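for the recovery benchmark. C-alpha cells below, seq after
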C-alpha cells in the first residue's frame, strides 16, 4: 500500500507515543521528534510504500532515543495479559461447532494489541475489557469458508505474525490449524529485530510458539511489516513454495499488498481509514480477507 496523506499524523502520533514511552528527558524527546519530522518531510512520496517510509522514520527515532526497544515493557505486559485470557479462549473454542473458525476470530481480536495509534488498545489491559464485546461482534468481512477450503487442501502454510500479546492467540490458532489439517507444514515468521510492539524470535520463544509449528523464522531485519529485500533465503524459499500465506495485522498488509504473493489471507482489525479504504472494508472491523 502506498503512503496516504492521513498516514502522516498517524505516524507522528506513534512517534510521540514511543518517545514518551522511552524517556522523560524533554531534550531527548524533542530531538527525536525533530528527527522524525525532518526525515518524514524528506521521505514523503505518494509513490512509496507506507511501511517502507515508517521503517526509516522509526529507525531514526530509535537511534535518536538511544533505545533499541522502547516497547519492551508493553510487550511483556501484553503477553502476560493475553496468556491470562487463554482459559476464556479455550472455552470459546471448545464450545464452538467450528474450532478453527473460533480460534481465528480470537486471533483477530488479538490484533488490537497495538499501541500509539487510533483504533488500537490504549493499554494492554484494554484487551480484557473489550474481548467479549469484539467476539460477540463477529467478523465484518468473512472469507472463512474459502480460506478453510484452502487450508484443507494445503500442504504448506506461512504465517507472518504481528504484535506481542496477539502471538499468544496465534499460538492457539496454529495448534488448531494442525488439528484441522495434521499434514499441514506451518512456518511462522516473526520480526528480525524489535520494532514497535511486534513480536521477535525471543518474544515467540518465551511463549513456546515453536512447539506448535514446524519452523520458526524471522524477517531478518528491522522493519515495519516486511522488507522483502532483506528476507533470509529460508523465508523466501518458504514463501515461494507455500500453498497459502496468512498475514496478521495492518503493517503486513501494507507490505504484502505491494507484492504478487497469492493466495494470501489477511487476518486483522481495520484500525485506520487508509487500510480500510485500500482493502475496500469499513473501519474498526474484524476481517478475514482472502486474495486468490
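predicted aa per position
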Amino acid at each position: 500500500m502506498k503512503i496516504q496523506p492521513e498516514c502522516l499524523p498517524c505516524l507522528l502520533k506513534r512517534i510521540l507515543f514511543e518517545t514518551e514511552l522511552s524517556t522523560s528527558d524533554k531534550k531527548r524527546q524533542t530531538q527525536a521528534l525533530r528527527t522524525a519530522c525532518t526525515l518524514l518531510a524528506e521521505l514523503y512520496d505518494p509513490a512509496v510504500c507506507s511501511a517502507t517510509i515508517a521503517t526509516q522514520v522509526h529507525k531514526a527515532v530509535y537511534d535518536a532515543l538511544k533505545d533499541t526497544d522502547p516497547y519492551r515493557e508493553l510487550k511483556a505486559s501484553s503477553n502476560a495479559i493475553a496468556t491470562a485470557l487463554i482459559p476464556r479462549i479455550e472455552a470459546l473454542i471448545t464450545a464452538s461447532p467450528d474450532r478453527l473458525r473460533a480460534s481465528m476470530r480470537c486471533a483477530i481480536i488479538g490484533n488490537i494489541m497495538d499501541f500509539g495509534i487510533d483504533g488500537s488498545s490504549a493499554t494492554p489491559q484494554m484487551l480484557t475489557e473489550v474481548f467479549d464485546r469484539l467476539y460477540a461482534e463477529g467478523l465484518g468481512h468473512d472469507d472463512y469458508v474459502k480460506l478453510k477450503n484452502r487450508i484443507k487442501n494445503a500442504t504448506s502454510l506461512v504465517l507472518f505474525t504481528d504484535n506481542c500479546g496477539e502471538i499468544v492467540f496465534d499460538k492457539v490458532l496454529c495448534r488448531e490449524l494442525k488439528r484441522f489439517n495434521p499434514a499441514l507444514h506451518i512456518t511462522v515468521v516473526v520480526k528480525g529485530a524489535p520494532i514497535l510492539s511486534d513480536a521477535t524470535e525471543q518474544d515467540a520463544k518465551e511463549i513456546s510458539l515453536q512447539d506448535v509449528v514446524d519452523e520458526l523464522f524471522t524477517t531478518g531485519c528491522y522493519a515495519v511489516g516486511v522488507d522483502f529485500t532483506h528476507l533470509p533465503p529460508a523465508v523466501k524459499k518458504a514463501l515461494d513454495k507455500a500453498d497459502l500465506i496468512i498475514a496478521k495485522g495492518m503493517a503486513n498488509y501494507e507490505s504484502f499488498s505491494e507484492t504478487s504473493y497469492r493466495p494470501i489471507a489477511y487476518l486483522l482489525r481495520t484500525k485506520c481509514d487508509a487500510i480500510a479504504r485500500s482493502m475496500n472494508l469499513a473501519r474498526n472491523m474484524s476481517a478475514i480477507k482472502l486474495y486468490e
